[in-house]
Amino acid sequence: MVDQVREPRADGAQSARVARATMKDVAALAGVGIKTVSRVVNGERHVSEDTRVAVERAIAQLRFQRNASAASLRQGQSATIGLIVEDISEPTQSSIARAVERVALDEGTLLFTASSSDDPDRERAMTLSLISRRVDGLIVIPSPFDHGFLQPEMTAGLPIVFADRPPIGLTADTVLADNRGGAQTGTAHLIEAGHRRIAFIGDPESVHTGAERLAGYRDALADAGIPYDPKVVFLGAPSIERSEAAIAAALDVDVPATALFTGNSLNTLATLRAPSFERSALDHVAFDDFELADLLWRPLTVVAQDPSAMGEAAARLVFDRLRGEPGAARRVTLPTRLIVRNHR
Amino acid sequence: MVDQVREPRADGAQSARVARATMKDVAALAGVGIKTVSRVVNGERHVSEDTRVAVERAIAQLRFQRNASAASLRQGQSATIGLIVEDISEPTQSSIARAVERVALDEGTLLFTASSSDDPDRERAMTLSLISRRVDGLIVIPSPFDHGFLQPEMTAGLPIVFADRPPIGLTADTVLADNRGGAQTGTAHLIEAGHRRIAFIGDPESVHTGAERLAGYRDALADAGIPYDPKVVFLGAPSIERSEAAIAAALDVDVPATALFTGNSLNTLATLRAPSFERSALDHVAFDDFELADLLWRPLTVVAQDPSAMGEAAARLVFDRLRGEPGAARRVTLPTRLIVRNHR
DNA sequence: TGCTCGACCGACATCGTTGTCGGCGGCAAT
DNA sequence: ATTGCCGCCGACAACGATGTCGGTCGAGCA
User: Fold this and answer.
1) Could you report the per-residue pLDDT of B41-86, keeping only the tens digit for each?
2) Under an 8 A CB cutoff, do A321 and B14 touch?
3) What CDD domains would the database entry show (chains A, B) (predicted)?
4) Residue A130 is nearest to which of B73, B95, B110, comparing CB atoms?
5) CB of A141 within 8 A of CB of A300?
6) Residues in B 273-332 with any Cβ partner in A closer than 8 A
7) Do the Cβ atoms of B232 and B197 come closer than 8 Å?
């Protein structure tokens, strides 16, 4: 392991930095004007075959690469979009990133990614930093705080699309999963299995997805004529301790729970690891799918989102707007899918 | 499912792109020269308190944001680095990305990410595209093909660091896991448990990590005086079918295998899902850790890498070089960790 | 008083590219 | 022969920032 931190040095030593070739160099070598080089590089018309070949030869010889900063400055476009997620190492979000990347590549665009850690200040700073780089568009998984500061950018024509959660204080294109419907379906699946007492462990209602999924859970109960009972509903930040306490409480009430719905991946993980969960024999359905969920000691039935579809939809929206697609802010809702996994 | 949200877009079509404020505008409003605005924006000295305040007021009023393309053009630096991975949605690689991002943020630098899909043409195109954007540095998880085309960039002073696998046809800073040592440790763990006949399922030797890990497996066997037998070693592209066949073959030889070492995550997953694996009762150690590996029907003992440390080391190397750190190409090797998980 | 010095500030050139425009030569229509 | 048009091409300005350099002003010093 190498870890020598050394003083920054005022240049010098190995500074044999070779200057890069510019269009001027290429033009000189090919014996043409720089505008002609530009035309060749950008595939414009009105260049004779002969000069095109000559220019291409010079480009290859000098290993010329167009300076995108200069082009961006001149054109006001950067062939670049930005993606702000909460944490790129989280599987759902990296899948979104992958899909965005794929669409961007098709459009000849490069992607900036940045993780906000759900810190609004950081998110804001990163967003503005991306904008100062003149990204052509922005996709944001917003932290749950006001995004009004983006209004001027949007009216200035910058396409901004929100994914996974809607923005607060701003009306903009948004791509969401069908959180409510998914939670309803998952809960209904437990009801169909005969359960009448179903506990719920999820995010606080201040989180958009938390509120929506709780609503879906209540929808399913209502549909089945089962009264909603806050005594078996536990909302808060995910932790093994909280899940453990929730399970204990859900089993200790007047009519003990026989099943459990966990509302998001972190709460699901915490619950799976809670010591008393395995003993509890609670039937279980979770929101969000996992790699290996089929290979757990008891395979996990889940309501799965499609992060790839979400990323793709968001990216397409950005590029549609970039092409001038007019119209009011759109809201795209993506379906979820119940994946039933039975005992092994 | 697309529906519309209430308010229309503030600017009819989007044609009404409002021009962004430039330093010229700020200078005019503040009644100073543009160079003074530049000084304020960049925190240079030799600006009186009064003018600084006036300029800052004008900046706020006009919502001025420095155009990074212009600055980059002028300065030859972009405060931007690029990361090329094989697939950003793969957990190990997104963890690397997260760590790189963290270091970059500390350095006031933004991160481009791009997935090569292990396609050398794509990787090359993406790399050159990043270079044309004048990234200040590059981190690459290289596809197993020649990277000699990067030599001119490196001699031109662009810091390039390779992660996870060494580049081919190029000498450059590289950060690797201790693949050989890790595989040796993992295999030794099985030997200590009494196994003398251990099958190996891994990547082909053409993949660097595949070759190294196979070597580590052989090291452990040699240390224990167990002969290496190709009949229980299966190298190739991961698939459930291949794992299934491998298990059948390993059990069907003269002396059947009693344990299995899987050499990378994809082969591990394929093997876990192979129908006859569960029945086989093979003791099992895998290279690469997973979320949920502790909650499988049989908890999985693994040799874990530290992707976060890898990303951090690679990023630090880039910034060290950027600060002018001289010297020959370095190779950093990160330790692995055996995580023993016993029956539940 | 005269001179130096340093803090403060702005005009100007410059980075590398692309949009504008005008020149040139050849060809078809008049 | 003249006109007009079109394809090809290059000079030049502009994009928005920063480095250079020189100017102004007040303080300090002999």
Assistant:
1) 999 989 999 999 999 999 999 999 999 999 999 999 999 999 999 9
2) yes
3) HTH_LacI (cd01392), PBP1_LacI_sugar_binding-like (cd06267)
4) B110
5) no
6) 273, 290-297, 313, 316, 320, 323-326, 330, 332
7) yes
